[in-house]
Structure formats: C-alpha cells, structure tokens
Design a protein that fits this description.
Blueprint lengths: L1 E7 L9 H5 L3 H15 L4 E3 L10 E6 L2 E6 L9 E8 L3 H8 L3 H4 L3 E6 L5
Antiparallel strand pairs: 1-5, 1-6, 2-5, 3-4
C-alpha cells in the first residue's frame, strides 16, 4: 500500500531558519542531514521535491465563482506542511515505523500519514 507522509515542521530547526539552525551543534546538523538521506535509501520511499517556506506559499480558494488568494498557508505556521514523501509499505505499522525515523518527528514537528486512495 502507498502512504503519503506529510512532514509538519512545527518548531523543528531547518537550514532555512538560520537562527534556529545555528543553535544546533555541527554534529546535530550533520545528523539531521544524514537521517534524511537515510530515509531516501529505505526501499519503497519516493522522496518529494524540496518545498519552499510556508510564508512564501499562496493559498487559493474559490468562493461563489471568485478566486481568492492569500499569502502563506491559512493554518497556523506550526501546522504547515514542510515536506512530504511517498512510502510503499506493507501496512500502517510499517509506515509508522518509518515516520519515527523522520528527524522532524523528534525535533518538535509531526508526521501525518495518509493512505493513497484510488477513486477512479
């Protein structure tokens, strides 16, 4: 079964936030890079493309036939998606095990797992 793994960054330090990233030791930074690289080597993982910062996003809605756009995500920044990947796994338990290996999960963020559904 395929699962989409949505990475909610939360308060996780990222290289995009130099202030927070700078509070990590060089060893911690290198370990985070290594952990993400290791995820990409797991059989069944298809990495997602790098995503820009949530504050650079545009959210689109259509109401009463009118297109409405807002800067950034409508949700709070802690809830914004910071990345994603697709995982081919036997079951939800296997997907949960992989989610625990995503650095954001242990550094203040969360991983949302959604099964891929085929509707047509």
């Amino acid at each position: 079964m395929q699962y989409v793994m949505l990475i909610h960054q939360g308060d996780t330090p990222t290289p995009f936030d130099q202030k927070a990233w700078g509070r990590l030791s060089t060893e911690e930074q290198q370990q985070i890079y290594a952990d993400y690289q290791a995820l990409n080597q797991i059989p069944g993982v298809t990495p997602g493309p790098p995503m820009g910062l949530p504050e650079n996003a545009t959210t689109v809605r259509v109401q009463n036939g009118r297109t409405l756009t807002t800067d950034g995500p409508f949700v709070g920044m802690k809830e914004a998606v910071g990345g994603m990947f697709v995982l081919e796994a036997d079951d939800l338990d296997a997907a949960i095990e992989v989610a625990t290996r995503v650095p954001a999960a242990r550094l203040g963020g969360a991983i949302e797992i959604r099964p891929v559904e085929t509707y047509w």
